[in-house]
Amino acid sequence: MLFLPQRPYMILGTLRHQLLYPTVDRDVSDEELHDVLCKVNLPDTVERCGGFDMDLDFGKMLSIGEQQRLAVARVLLTKPRYTVLDEATSALDGENEAKLYLLLAELDTTLVSVTHHSGLLKYHRQVLELTGQGGWKLHDASRFQFDAELSRESTPGGAGPQVPPNAAVPPTPPLAPKVPPRPPNDVSPPKPTVPPAPPVPPASDVLPPAPPEAPVPTEPPVATVPPVAAEPPTPPVPPVPVVPPVEGKPVSTGPGGGAPVPPVDG
Fold first, then answer.
1. Where are the beta strands (DSSP E) in 105-239?
2. E strands, 1-62, in order
3. Can you tell me the distance from the alpha carbon of 26 to that of 20, in angstroms, rounded to the nearest whole number?
4. Backbone φ and ψ of 46, nearest 5°
5. Nearest 5 degrees, angle CA 218-CA 223-CA 225?
6. Which of 24, 157, 217, 239 is deepest in the core (most CB within 10 A)?
7. Which residues contact 84 (CB under 8 A, 6 or more apart)?
8. How far is CA 214 from CA 176, 208, 219, 220, in A?
9. Alpha helix locations (H) across 85-132?
10. How many C-beta neighbours within 10 Å does residue 254 have?
11. Beta-carbon neighbour count of residue 73 at 10 Å?
C-alpha cells in the first residue's frame, strides 16, 4: 500500500531514491526511470538534477506540483495493491490531474481518493460516505453530488458489503456535539452574590513634613595667646674718658686699649 498526502514526503538523497521510495534498493534501469518521468510530465528533471545519482534537497528544489507528480511516478514504479490519495493532486491543473488519474486507472491497484474535488468522481465507480458515529453510506459515483442534502440513492451503513476498488471517499463531516435536552421547569439555583470589596482609600498626594534636622554642634573658640613683651633695649656703653696727655711725657694706653696710664716718675 502507498499513501500519497497533499504534500509528498521528499527523502534526502538522489533522484533515483526519490522515484524508488520506499524500496530504494531495487534494480531499475535509467531508461525505465526516465520513461516514467516523461509519463508524469517531468521530462527535464534528470537534466536539472545532474543525473539520477546526485544528492539534492528535493523539498526545496521542486515545487509542490512537481512533488505531487513525482509521487504518482512512485506508484507507477511500485504498483501497490492499494493506493490512498489524500488531496494528492490539489496543486495540479485539470489537464495534469486527468492525465495522472488515467495512468493510475491502468494499474491493477485499488484507488481510494479523499478529495473535495468533484471532478475526480469520473475516475471512480462508487463513493463511500462516512456519516459519523460509525455509520456510512455507499453511493453510485455517476449520480453522486457534493451537496449538503445528500438526497440520493444509497446503501445504509452497517455490516454492509466491502468497499469495491476505485471508490472515492469524501471528507468526513464534522460531528455535531450532543447536548442533552434540558428538562422542563428546570430552574437553576441563583448564583451566590459576592459582596463588593471595600473601597480603597485614595492615596494622599501630600507628603508629611520631614522632621527638623539636629543642629550641628559648634566648635569651641580657640584661646588667644597674649603677645610676647618686647625686650628692653640694651643701654648704651658709656664712653671711656680720655685723659689728656701730660706735656713732655709719653702716653701709654692700658691693656686692651683702655685708659692711658700715666708714666711713673723716677
1. 110-114, 126-132, 135-140, 167-169
2. 2-4
3. 7
4. -60, -45
5. 155
6. 157
7. 1, 2, 3, 4, 112, 113, 114
8. 81, 18, 15, 18
9. 94-105
10. 9
11. 23
Residue 24 identity = V
| Strand order through the sheet with 135-140 | 2-4, 82-86, 110-114, 167-169, 126-132, 135-140
Partner residues linked to 38 by β-bridges: none
pLDDT at 159: 34
- 584661646: which residue's cell? 223
d(CA 103, CA 69): 12
CA 26 to chain centre: 42
